[in-house]
Design goal:
The structure is a single chain. The chain is mainly α and 101 residues long. It contains 4 helices and no strands. InterPro entries: Bifun_inhib/LTP/seed_sf, Bifunc_inhib/LTP/seed_store. Its main location: secreted. It is found in: Secreted.
Length: 101
């Protein structure tokens, strides 16, 4: 009888542990989704900087609006976006990017 109680207790503890892990993973996923949505919004705000980064356009110096938008973008958001963009051609079976100075 004691062995049965011990088994039931062990199974209950294991089930509780699985539930705790699932809740923690769900919370982490929600945090990642919120971070991704925030990054997307920050990057969308950079549209005001297009005249200063698109080759062939004549604007030389960014506006205050562009600088403010750039300042509001988290460092990791901007860097991860550049990394992803640089890897994208390879995933599309295109030659990798090679950029000069």
């Amino acid at each position: 009888m004691a062995g049965l109680k011990s088994q039931v207790s062990l199974k209950s503890n294991a089930a509780l542990l699985v539930l705790i892990i699932a809740v923690a993973m769900c919370a982490a996923l929600q945090a990642q989704i919120a971070s991704a949505q925030s990054c997307t919004a920050e990057l969308n705000n950079l549209n005001v900087c297009a005249p200063f980064v698109v080759p062939g356009l004549s604007e030389n110096n960014p506006t205050a609006e562009c600088c403010t938008a750039l300042q509001s973008v988290e460092h990791d958001c901007l860097c991860n976006t550049v990394r992803i963009a640089a890897r994208l051609p390879v995933h599309c079976n295109l030659p990798p990017l090679t950029c000069g100075n």
